[in-house]
Design brief:
65 residues; elongated
Amino acid sequence: MGFLGLGSPFVMLQMKYGDEASLEFTERVARTMAEVGWERGIELAQEKGAAPIMLDNSKSQQRCC
């Protein structure tokens, strides 16, 4: 589920969009998605190595600053 699918759980859980419960739920979902994304990214990097674009330091520095 991405953020586009976030409205469906609101309906299923009978949450009102924008109320305190929906905001807390959204924060938990966003935090979980971020944490799991980082964990899976680390696992992939360990398994497959760095993404080729990350190996060219000159390009990453240009985008960064």
